[in-house]
Amino acid sequence: MFSIAFVYSASASFADVKFGSSEELVWNHAIRVLVGLTLMIVFAKIDYRVWQGTSATVLLVAIGFLLMVLVMGTEIKGASRWVKLGPVNFQPSELAKFALVIHTAALLSTNRSTLRTWKKGILPIMVWVLPVCILIAPATQPIHGKCDLPHCYGDDVLGRRGYQTSAHYCWYGAPCCQCLCCYGRIPT
Q1: So what's the pLDDT on residue 34?
Q2: Those residues with Cβ within 8 angstroms of residue 67's Cβ, 6 or more apart along the chain or in another chain
Q3: Residue 154 near residue 84 (C-beta atoms within 8 A)
Q4: CA distance 185 to 153
Q5: How far apart, in whole angstroms, are the C-alpha atoms of residue 23 and residue 160?
Q6: Beta partners for 82?
Q7: What does the CA dihedral 184, 132, 150, 162 come to, rounded to 10 degrees?
Q8: 29 alpha carbon, distance to own chain's centre
Q9: Per-residue pLDDT reduced to its tens digit, 82-104
Q10: How many angstroms separate the CA atoms of 26 and 123, rounded?
């Protein structure tokens, strides 16, 4: 809510010159804040078991949208990372990050007895993480800041589940693949 005041403070004179009204950008931002708060409340009311049951489907849809960016992405500010859905531009990497966190948590909660093994603990998660990371990397060009986000989310979830350091090192394979896509090299 404070962002509305900040946007008005920072953009009033610019909006007045460009749009003829100092409140143009503030109202645009206020509507987005209101929609965001409404969606936050609606999604918070949904039982977590619903998210657990639909996590794979939501992640597959997100992967589909990431593939759409590669084929028919809309370029905005020098990066082709948007999909145009009617009057709305949609950034699939945001959905993919959300879906990846939800699905990783669902996998971790259903495989509790085998979590500490590579084959049944880490590998099923990596099967989902690697495609998302590889698809997000080209979708964020030329801004590489999002390349590490899915990896960080997964690393945080693994850390909360009590994985040992060796499991964390295995998890770092995902950003290495991303860095190869983004920068053409693995960071040292």
Answers
A1: 93
A2: 135
A3: no
A4: 22
A5: 44
A6: 74
A7: -110
A8: 21
A9: 888 888 888 888 889 889 989 98
A10: 47
Single-letter amino acid code for the residue at 136: I
Binned at pLDDT 50, 70 and 90, residue 168 comes out as very low
**Residues 92/145, Cβ–Cβ less than 8 Å:** no
Question: In sequence order, what DSSP letters do the residues of 112-169 get, joined into one string?
Answer: GGGTTSIIIIIHHHHHHHHHHHHHHHHHTTT-GGGGGHHHHHHHHHHHHTT--HHHHH
pTM over 0.70: no
| pLDDT tens sequence across 1-19 | 678 888 877 887 888 788 8
- Going by C-alpha positions, the residue among 186, 78, 98, 63 that lies closest to residue 140 is 78
Q: Are 167 and 155 in contact (CB under 8 A)?
A: no
Answer whether 153's CB lies under 8 Å from 97's CB: yes
Cβ contacts of residue 145 below 8 Å, gap of 6+? Answer: none
Quick one: which of 61, 69, 57 has its CA closest to 137?
A: 69
- Work out the angle between the directed axes of helices 24-45 and 2-19 (0-180°, nearest 10): 140
Residue written as token pair 């964020």: 140
Q: Quote the tokens at residue 179.
A: 């860095």
The SS3 assignment for 77 reads coil
As a whole number of angstroms, the distance between CA 103 and CA 51 comes to: 8
